[in-house]
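ARCHIVE RECORD
Type: protein–small molecule complex
Small molecule: PMT
Source of inputs: curated submission
Record status: active
Notes field left blank by submitter.
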Amino acid sequence: MAPEVHDHTGSEVDGASEYFKNNPDPKQLSKHESLAKEFIQYHLETDSERRIAIVTSGGTTVPLERQTVRFIDNFSAGTRGATSAEYFLQAGYAVIFLHRQFSLLPYSRHYSHSTNCFLDFMDESSDGRVLVAEEYQSKMRRVLKQYQHAKSNRLLLLLPYTTVTEYLFELRSLAQLMHPVGERALFYLAAAVSDFFIPLDRMEEHKIQSRGGGKGQGSSTKLVIDLDPIPKFLKTLVDNWAPKGSMVVSFKLETDPDLLVSKAQQSLHRYQHDLVIGNLLTTRKWEVVFITRHDEHWIRVPKARRSKSFSGVADMVGLADTKREPEQPDLEGGTVTEGMEIEALIIPELKHIHDEVIAERRSNGGALISN
Ligand code: PMT
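STRUCTURE (tokenized, with ligand):
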């Protein structure tokens, strides 16, 4: 079980603590804590300079019943998190991947879901053996090598959760277990976390009946759901859970371009962490904005390298940019090749910022600096 968070007077410090008191530990928590402890210890012992990224990924569910049949969910498939984890591994980080169960995973994401079904990549040879079809050989070899490298060097730990409560318990434990990693720890909070939940004491035990049976629902066919806010845990993470000197990167998701930058700036100001990466639902695969205390910096996939996206709206690219900087011209020729993943641009830039943060925090003797 995770240790309690206390301030210097020994009393509990935040709204998040109430939340933890009122909700039971997830069943998997102690097993996950042992796995994470072992993983962190292994990297501390084998490479004193190894950086470890906690990548959170996917949606969180909000159960409506204790014996859960129905739940509230959100859109996130975990593409951002799974893709980013691969680029973190490529950049030399070890990664603890805290993900919504059954959302996309690093490496296997290339061959899952109906758009990329692994069976479509296979063929049968004349002697009845199953093979990878010729045209997919080189990409599959590349992905397989990267996967095997991560696996054989114990660089990737996969930890699943389902509900928002499980997510919060797991994140708190991981942050506390990361203390010995200090400024080499990086938190990359890409999961789409619910802001609302039903407290346990108001939650039905059994399946809510559609007619007549639901407690408090009378014979009505309407279902009225009364949700409480979940305390924003980002401040608690920054102030109390995460190792001092570690780098915390959160995401801000909006749908209205006029709000994105100001909301991301507010979030940075309120939670006092290192970086907010802002994204719009409709353009998130092609552009993001890095918000630090002094800067609004847009990262965009060059036009000719933008992959097609069902949910994307190409005309919205640039609309949230408060500086209205003109798009960078495309690289020579502008030939459409394999679509570029924006995480291929985000993670190297983040690593560069992390280099600077580490250097500065070390030269300050571990003291926190402002951006
Ligand atoms: O998975 P994909 O389909 O690829 O989509 C990726 C993504 C759009 C989900 C991802 O890029 C992203 O933006 N993730 C964060 C979404 C989100 O929760 O945004 P928000 O604006 O609601 O929350 C902002 C921050 O507050 C988040 O860092 C979150 O961790 C934090 N938060 C949220 C809820 C809560 N109760 N407490 C918090 O501290």
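CURATOR ANNOTATION: The chain has two domains: 15-112+151-205+224-245, 266-328+337-365.
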